Amino acid sequence: MKEYKQYYAGSLTKVEQSDREKFLQDANKKMQSEGLEKIHVSIEPRKVTRELLKLLKQYNVITVELEIKIANNFILKKYKANYNMEDIKKASKLIKRSRLKLGYQLMVGFPDSTRIDEQESAKYLIKFRPSLVRIYPVLVIEGTELAESYKNNEYEPLLLTQAIERCKELIYMFNKKSIKAITVGILDEERLKDDEKKKIKIIAGPIHKDFPQLVEDSIWYDSIVGKIKKYNNKVKEVKVEVNPKNVDNVIGYENENITKFKDLYLVEMQVIPNEKIKPGRSEMKILTIYED
CB neighbours (10 Å) of residue 171? Predict the structure, then answer.
């Protein structure tokens, strides 16, 4: 399927059926004003019908992202979700049969969810061959039931390092199957209206304004560590060349990767931008090794 520049129009979950056409008309005007070509919407699984998908296609929608938290019937039922795994399956198949791009939202750190639960959820979603998965760390927002559970010591949010590792594990799983997976930070700014942003007060959780970068930096760190470990000799200094777009990721947030290489592996690392290297790729050269 051809790649298009997409405009995220928002969630259709709470849009009444009678208002959907107006919603899509407004989305098309916004899309055109921003010089984009197609529209991306999100919605809960049970709201997906053949009639809705037919309407979406008439209004230039190309991607439908299912708003799910986790693919685990026990947890979904316990927290009174409006859908179950069978609903996810039905909605996914309808979207694929309509020749629209399928996307998912998936959370790490949801109450009662473990790493294994999240990995099993990923395995379940992989079966439907989505085009995109957005992975969110669960944050505790004031005024929600989760906030009350947190205040009553009934819910313990993930630490920042835990959230990074769990997001990264899922990204590896999806990428291994050639499925694009990305993390989303504290607030997915594109998806919230100004009045919604003002109402949100985060009181706990893996909070960091550059959370997606931290995950990407960690993935780059793993990649370079893997290359270094392939050498039989004790590496002392390396030169890593990457596309300019990836330099900050290799260096790490506030030079964190550079520091970790030095502290944990006693490796000095030079990071060199090279426009000839494709984004996401790297070339590494060993400059010096430790002599026995």
Answer: 22
Within 10 angstroms of residue 77's Cβ, the number of other Cβ atoms is: 10
- Tell me the pLDDT tens digit for each residue of 91-109: 999 999 999 999 999 999 9
**Which residue in the block uniquely carries the two structure tokens 């969810």?**
113
Residue 277 belongs to some domain of the structure: yes
Tell me if residue 213 falls in helix, strand or coil: helix
Q: Is 36 exposed, middle or buried (CB count within 10 Å of its CB: 0-12, 13-18, 19+)?
A: middle
Q: Give the pLDDT confidence of 205-252 residue by residue, as tens digits.
A: 999 989 999 999 999 999 999 998 888 778 899 999 999 999 999 999
Report the alpha-carbon distance of residue 157 to residue 132 in Å, rounded. 26
**CA–CA dist 198, 126 (Å, integer):** 35
Helix, strand or coil, per DSSP, at residue 137? strand
The boundaries of the domain holding residue 38 are 6-209
Calculate Rg over the CA atoms of the chain: 21
Beta bridge partners of 8: 40
Angle CA(277)–CA(281)–CA(283) in degrees, nearest 5?
70
Note the residue count of the chain.
292
Beta bridge partners, 81, equal none
Angle made by CA atoms 67, 169, 6, in degrees to the nearest 5? 40
The CATH number that applies at residue 264 is 3.40.1260.20
Round to whole Å and give the CA distance between 187 and 105: 14
Same domain flag for 165 and 244 = no
Q: Quick check: 120 and 108 in contact, CB under 8 A?
A: no
